[in-house]
Design brief:
By secondary structure, this protein is mostly helical. It has helices spanning 5-19, 41-51, 56-67, 91-94, 108-119, 122-143, 156-159, 179-195, 200-205, 214-233, 237-261, 293-303, 336-348, 352-369, 394-401, and strands spanning 20-23, 26-29, 39-40, 83-84, 211-212, 266-268, 273-275, 374-375, 382-383. The longest helix is centred in the middle third of the chain and has 25 residues, at 237-261.
Length: 405
């Protein structure tokens, strides 16, 4: 792909460096200093994936600082929080000063493996290994009350796409809510989580937010596969088999649900009520190998439809949906983090041309509008902070397209 590598490295490095911070002996990168000052889990994974092309020490530090705040005791032992508050300040919302009490998409073993591929630093993997094993064991112990190998989320923030219309019904908020309504409902739910000790089973029984998303589980399958390969590198063949088996169970469970239900909807509550809100989430199944070849073919032709394959793909909500709102946070925008997941999924299933197109359009978007948090999928206009760290993930797509290793 034609693009000046050095120029892109320079631009991404300058942005990430200006958002970097050191606190209490740990280094991390703020998603956007004026808006998002804390450390966020999946953001740090994307940052590490960009850093790996020009600053391997920082790529490693970004992941090591993230696991430093994991829960080491109590019912949620093993969980990596979705936010670390290195300077404190979490108390009012979470009841804890230095971390949140929920998680985010588990991409950290994926990021660790890809960083290791460039650094070959075994000590780095050794430091991360036990926290990553404990994290994945936590998911199974705490988040799969119905034992179908697919975990559930207890808060929309855990899915990463905070205000997506997919969460309106399980959050019990009216259709076409105002941004204030969705925000207030998310804050109110945190109080319930504290009261109910984040117990997925009791939250589901009391009709609170309890959603089993297929895309989230696909990301988890991809992460378990990466963890299995890390276990092999570190000479732990039994763990490697166990994690690979768990990934396989997730893949089989997703494929069985899609086949039996004949849909890709999120499943809500213990009765698994389908939430029929169409988003780009289904395309993320490819990332974690959660589709048969036939399913993949169908998904790719849906993806290529202009409903999703906009001027700047991929829109999170299709353009013909009644709630398509291209300028409203998570309600029909392009997010480069999501694009990276779909890009990797397309490559996994051999759709190289489509993946290249996505990489090209993602770079064109940043070239046109800068490193915004999210974008209008038709005009490319940028929204949210203009120097959002994770939008540097385009560098990883460029590196792959240019065959760098
Ligand atoms: C927003 C996004 C979330 C992200 C966070 C920090 O809350 O919805 O996915 O992790 O910002 O960038």
């Amino acid at each position: 792909m034609e693009a000046n590598w050095n120029e892109w490295v320079e631009k991404c490095a300058a942005l990430l460096k200006s958002n970097q911070i050191e606190s209490r002996g740990h280094r991390y990168t703020r998603p956007a200093p004026m808006t998002y000052e804390q450390q966020w889990l999946w953001d740090s994974c994307f940052h590490a994936l960009a850093y790996r092309w020009f600053d391997l020490n920082m790529a490693q530090d970004e992941l090591l600082s993230m696991v430093a705040m994991r829960f080491t005791d109590g019912a949620d032992r093993g969980m990596i929080p979705h936010m670390n508050y290195w300077q404190g300040g979490g108390e009012a919302l979470w009841g804890l000063d230095d971390r949140s009490i929920i998680t985010q998409p588990p991409l950290i073993a994926v990021a660790a493996e890809l960083v290791y591929q460039r650094s070959n630093d075994r000590t780095f993997l050794e430091k991360l290994y036990q926290p990553l094993c404990d994290y994945h064991d936590w998911f199974i112990r705490r988040r799969d009350p119905d034992g179908d190998h697919l975990v559930s989320l207890i808060h929309p923030w855990e899915g990463g796409c905070d205000a997506s219309p997919r969460w309106d019904a399980p959050m019990h908020i009216p259709s076409e809510p105002t941004p204030e309504q969705t925000k207030a409902s998310r804050h109110a739910l945190v109080k319930t989580l504290i009261d109910q000790d984040c117990n997925a089973q009791t939250l589901a029984e009391s009709d609170h937010f309890h959603v089993e998303p297929l895309d989230y589980n696909a990301i988890r399958a991809g992460d378990l596969e990466a963890l299995s390969r890390i276990a092999t590198i570190l000479g732990n063949p039994d763990d490697a088999t166990r994690f690979q088996d768990e990934a396989k169970k997730i893949q089989q469970s997703v494929i069985a649900k899609v086949t039996n239900n004949q849909h890709y909807w999120d499943l809500s509550g213990l009765s698994e009520k389908p939430l029929d809100v169409e988003t780009c989430a289904r395309f993320i199944l490819l990332f974690g190998g959660c589709a048969t070849d036939t399913m993949a073919q169908q998904l790719v032709s849906e993806l290529e439809n202009p409903r999703f394959w906009t001027n700047f793909p991929v829109t999170t909500t299709p353009t013909d949906a009644p709630d398509f709102a291209p300028d409203h946070y998570w309600r029909g925008n392009v997010w480069l983090s999501v694009n990276w997941l779909i890009y990797q999924g397309l490559r996994r299933y051999g759709y190289m041309q489509q993946a290249s197109h996505m990489a090209q359009r993602s770079l064109a978007l940043v070239a046109q509008s800068g490193f915004h948090e999210y974008f209008n999928p038709i005009t490319g206009e940028g929204h949210g902070p203009s120097l959002q760290s994770w939008s540097t993930i385009v560098l990883d797509m460029l590196a792959i397209e240019q065959g760098r290793s």
